[in-house]
Amino acid sequence: MLRRGFALLCRERSLWPWAILPLLSSLAAFALAIWAFTANLDAIAAPLERALDPGEPEAWWGWAWAGPLLVLALLVRWLLLAALGVAIYFLFTVLGGVIAAPFLEVLSERVERIATGASAPSDSGLAALARGAVRSIVEEGKRAAFFVSVQIGLLLLGLIPGAQPIAAAASLVFTALFLPLDYTAHALDRRRVSFRLRRRWIFGHPAEMLGFGGLGLALFFVPGLSFLCLPWLVTSGTLLALELGPPEERPPAP
């Protein structure tokens, strides 16, 4: 499916403007994240240095314990700064996705029109386009809030001694399942599919969803690469939603 999405995106030049616009907005968010971290690095590091400074010993033999403490303080400082940098990166990754949502909505709709040979199930006109843009931003914000809230819960779970491996594995699996939920969302938003049905649909196709999400997750571990692949993943996610069929309500039991 990812191969089909890449081939379609390369072949159809009419999709390129709608692939470039979210790319530019995501790169702008990435640049803003780098600026926010570097511009405030000294202000963040200074309190850490004061809090972790073991002080200078009064006698030379005091370095026997002050030296290791100083090394430990420096290590903790850099680990905390690295964790903060990663948090800022992912925060602005989510922000970039929200900003790019209206452009990705148009990209997904045009991909669907090309793939099916028919008009995508969406209204026409400037007012409808504006409503679609607002809807895509709101829905993307909801998904981002859901993702962040679950990850915070797993992070808190990881603070329990002995639960770190479980929390880390759960975080990876959840992210791998969330990515297809996110990248098929534009096609499903146009059909007004409820979030409950989407979750059931994701778990109903575990092999396809984990395969798709696993590659998307691998891209997130390369800083900046997820931004470059965002239009590709949305294109592939739209094709995935069309191939597996959008989820539908089950008829009530007799």
A few lines on this structure:
With 254 residues, this protein is mainly alpha-helical. Helices cover 80% and strands 0% of the residues.
Description:
By secondary structure, the chain is an all-alpha fold. The protein is 80% helix and 0% strand. The protein has one domain. The C terminus is likely disordered. The radius of gyration is 23 Å and the shape is elongated.
The computed structural class is mainly alpha
Largest sheet: none
One letter per element, helices H and strands E, the order comes to: HHHHHHHHHHH
Report the average pLDDT across residues: 77
Strand content: under 5%
Oligomer classification:
single chain
- Give the overall shape, derived from the CA principal axes: elongated
Q: Work out the helix count.
A: 11
Low-confidence stretches: 250-254
N- to C-terminal distance: 38 Å
Computed CA radius of gyration, to the nearest angstrom: 23 Å
- Report the helical percentage: over 70%
Tell me the number of structural domains: 1
Number of strands: 0
Features:
254 residues, disordered C terminus, 0% strand, mainly alpha
Topology (SSEs and partners):
Elements: H1 2-11, H2 16-39, H3 41-52, H4 63-116, H5 126-158, H6 164-183, H7 185-189, H8 195-204, H9 206-220, H10 225-228, H11 230-244
